[in-house]
Amino acid sequence: MGNVPSAVKHCLSYQQLLREHLWIGDSVAGALDPAQISVLINLHCFQPYVCGFSVSLAGSVACIHWETSQLSGLPEFVKIVEVGPRDGLQNEKVIVPTDIKIEFINRLSQTGLSVIEVTSFVSPRWVPQMADHTEVMKGIHQYPGVRYPVLTPNLQGFHRAVAAGATEISVFGAASESFSKKNINCSIEESMGKFEEVVKSARHMNIPARGYVSCALGCPYEGIITPQKVTEVSKRLYSMGCYEISLGDTIGVGTPGSMKRMLESVMKEIPLGALAVHCHDTYGQALANILTALQMGINVVDSAVSGLGGCPYAKGASGNVATEDLIYMLNGLGLNTGVNLYKVMEAGDFICKAVNKTTNSKVAQASFRA
Amino acid sequence: MAAMTKALPRRLVGLASLRAVSTSSMDALPKRVKIVEVGPRDGLQNEKNIVSTPLKIKLIDMLSEAGLSVIEATSFVSPKWVPQMADHAEVLKGIQKFPGITYPVLTPNLKGFEAAVAAGAKEVAIFGAASELFTKKNINCSMEESFQRFDAILKAAQSANISVRGYVSCVLGCPYEGKISPAKVAEVTKKLYSMGCYEISLGDTIGVGTPGIMKDMLSAVMQEVPPAALAVHCHDTYGQALANTLMALQMGVSVVDSSVAGLGGCPYAQGASGNLATEDLVYMLEGLGIHTGVNLQKLLEAGNFICQALNRKTSSKVAQATCKL
């Protein structure tokens, strides 16, 4: 227990509190309480004080504020796609050893996350962090009920991924011609040709393929990206067989208005159930943008534990939205995710120590002793 | 783990009402938002390093030049409680008072109010809470006693033609009481409004709120106080501030408090962040086409200035992204 943050030690009694306090017990039994249910379990282990339930643990009171509300019109369940091990680590300078990556993913598998993007079968020349893709894919424990997609930029990568045991793959398009050229060294049209090969092979082998569209709300080279362009690229990927399209605000420049306009356009061509959003928090807009997407019916959201990853286009900037902060918002909205926030924080703490950085998650910052 | 996930109540809601909410709520956003800059007071108050008087004055002057129309300058509270604000009179006298900009100051009691007026204050702010325990711990009296104090200030302010802004703390949760009912918040807000406060700022003091809770709270308050007299003051302790602020805008609130560089920590959560960063707020509002009157570039300069003075990194993501390392 030595390395467990003190706040989390207190959280271990959460189960006990749930059992002891009947209103939570009622909802476990299935009897819905239409009124707001709040459990005050405060992770602010700052000083002893009396709160709703006097639980004293090692001299301080452990509480988490867990409210649910009646915000109507939101999806019942939100699927979180955890991209920390791939998108997150890919943008971290420190190369993480293979065994740490495997341990990290195994921990994430035990949090309730149902989709964890493991690695990228890309050339080590381009992404050194992902050089150990095969070892990681083979080394992780594949928990039942959890899916482990991997990025496969081309047919070669796809075949390697399958040989290593991958059962789901992703392809990465962009809504910007310049970004496509600079990032994967070919035009959008050429990239679609490559992806089509990959996706067709995948479908042939009954392997689901997820499509990403980068620069959905702006491009570091072209600036404004029209919703029509995003729709066009998304439609291409969807019609070639991708079961889900993740719309990425790659440089985090989007705001709720541009998110809404983009989604309105894409939703005319692609069913809601096949869409996801992937928001970067470079300008602090991620959760506001995600809320907008949820209000529009989107119920799949990508995030990275601890907000791993910087932004290669803005030195010093932050990267992905933190899974912990996303879960906090979704929990507060009364939406089911199936994910255990504490376990995610533990996994986040583990990887931050391994990468020697402080977490980008505000929830984690507020919960652990500095 | 299973017990925990089952404990979360399932909300069975239809998707149909979602689209009605989304399209109408976006269209209903205000065209203009007034930003109340609380960095020099709420922000600095929670910073460990004491900032010298000249630097405080320079910060406020820079914020004035950035186009903000309301800048909370200082707090006329006893230096024993808040050492950072010990130089309140000098700061208020020393700043440039630009036309069209107001510089409210906090006045916890009549003595502070009188000192503020003597130092040239034209607008003051009083600080209530929606929690009995928080009131006791924070200002050492009951809620009822606090209203009596405020009443004295409001009467004196009325005589002197000085506007009074009211704050309600702990509107989405209290570090001591936990859950705070929207009805309680509505009651306190109504009281302050009827006593004469022209505007009530509803504060998520420990940043625990999420958009649904914000909506429930505002729904209750708006039944008692007109939306135009309301403001929200969100702390970003759990990263929820901007999403909560967006919800408030969707509900018709058009006044938002924020702090340059996201100054201020949280006394209730060691290591946690504090206020919503003004830069990040302005970024969102500009992206939404909402008029603020603020020059983001000049605001970033002010943020950069105070962070250097405090020897700390900015908490604003916009500042982090735009600053060249």
Automatic annotation (TrEMBL), chain A:
Pfam families, per the entry: HMGL-like (PF00682)
One GO term (biological process): L-leucine catabolic process
Gene Ontology CC annotation, any one: cytosol
One term of GO molecular function: metal ion binding
Keyword Lyase attributed: yes
Annotated Pyruvate carboxyltransferase domain residues: 78-345
Catalytic activity as recorded in UniProt: (3S)-3-hydroxy-3-methylglutaryl-CoA = acetoacetate + acetyl-CoA
PANTHER family: 3-HYDROXY-3-METHYLGLUTARYL-COA LYASE, CYTOPLASMIC, HYDROXYMETHYLGLUTARYL-COA LYASE
Alphabetical list of SUPFAM superfamilies matching this protein: Aldolase (SSF51569)
Pathway: Metabolic intermediate metabolism; (S)-3-hydroxy-3-methylglutaryl-CoA degradation; acetoacetate from (S)-3-hydroxy-3-methylglutaryl-CoA: step 1/1
Protein's name in the database: hydroxymethylglutaryl-CoA lyase
Family statement drawn from the similarity comment of this UniProt entry: Belongs to the HMG-CoA lyase family.
Class of enzymatic activity (EC top level): lyase
Species whose genome carries this gene: Colobus angolensis palliatus
The keyword Ion transport belongs to this UniProt entry's keyword annotation: no
Record-linked InterPro entries: Aldolase_TIM, HMGL, PYR_CT
Listed EC numbers: 4.1.3.4
Coiled coil regions, renumbered to chain: none
Keywords assigned by UniProt, alphabetized: Lyase, Metal-binding
UniProtKB/TrEMBL annotation, chain B:
Keyword Flavoprotein: no
GO cellular component, one term: peroxisome
GO BP of this protein: ketone body biosynthetic process; L-leucine catabolic process
Reported function: Mitochondrial 3-hydroxy-3-methylglutaryl-CoA lyase that catalyzes a cation-dependent cleavage of (S)-3-hydroxy-3-methylglutaryl-CoA into acetyl-CoA and acetoacetate, a key step in ketogenesis. Terminal step in leucine catabolism. Ketone bodies (beta-hydroxybutyrate, acetoacetate and acetone) are essential as an alternative source of energy to glucose, as lipid precursors and as regulators of metabolism.
Gene Ontology terms for molecular function: hydroxymethylglutaryl-CoA lyase activity; metal ion binding
Top EC class of this enzyme: lyase
Protein name (record): Hydroxymethylglutaryl-CoA lyase, mitochondrial
E.C. code: 4.1.3.4
Domain of life of the native organism: Eukaryota
Quaternary structure and interacting proteins, as annotated: Homodimer; disulfide-linked. Can also form homotetramers.
Natural source organism: Colobus angolensis palliatus (Peters' Angolan colobus)
Domain Pyruvate carboxyltransferase: 33-300
Pathway membership, UniProt: Metabolic intermediate metabolism; (S)-3-hydroxy-3-methylglutaryl-CoA degradation; acetoacetate from (S)-3-hydroxy-3-methylglutaryl-CoA: step 1/1
Entry keyword annotation includes Cell division: no
InterPro entries: Aldolase_TIM, HMG_CoA_lyase_AS, HMGL, PYR_CT
Localization (cell): Mitochondrion matrix; Peroxisome
